[in-house]
Amino acid sequence: MSMHRQQATQEEDASLGLRGLGPEWEKAHPLWNAEVLLILQHHQTAIAKEEAGGVGGATRAPPSAQTQQRMQQTLQYVRALNNYHSQAAVDEAMGLLDQYPMLDKWELALLNNLKIDDLDECLTLLPTLRQKKDEGKIEVEQIERILADLKRYQTLT
What does the pLDDT look like over 33-57, one tens digit per residue? Predict the structure, then answer.
């Protein structure tokens, strides 16, 4: 397959959004960087409690040095990319799915995780939103409001 055809296929797949991933992804929940941060922090706390002997019952083997290193690297990464100061702000931002039912949870996660705050960038990076705009399923003003709302929630403390 030529490089040009390969790129065209990838672009076509991106325009399909979730449908391009297959039916097994329909029930999957896309994680925001803030959620990954919370999960890893919780996991670290659980490991620390186990190591301190604070957990009753059978204990797991401690994570390998390589696993601990990867977890630390991932934790640093999501801390750097986390754009929320509180769980309440994350919850409010996720509430945008209720306010804008034409948005798909993957689109909102991508808007958030990619820190998109410009309409042109949004329509370029998310072909599904461009397609929805072109089909009249979402208005430019709605997309701009979504981006502004995300930015507002990201600055809440």
Answer: 999 999 999 988 888 888 777 655 5
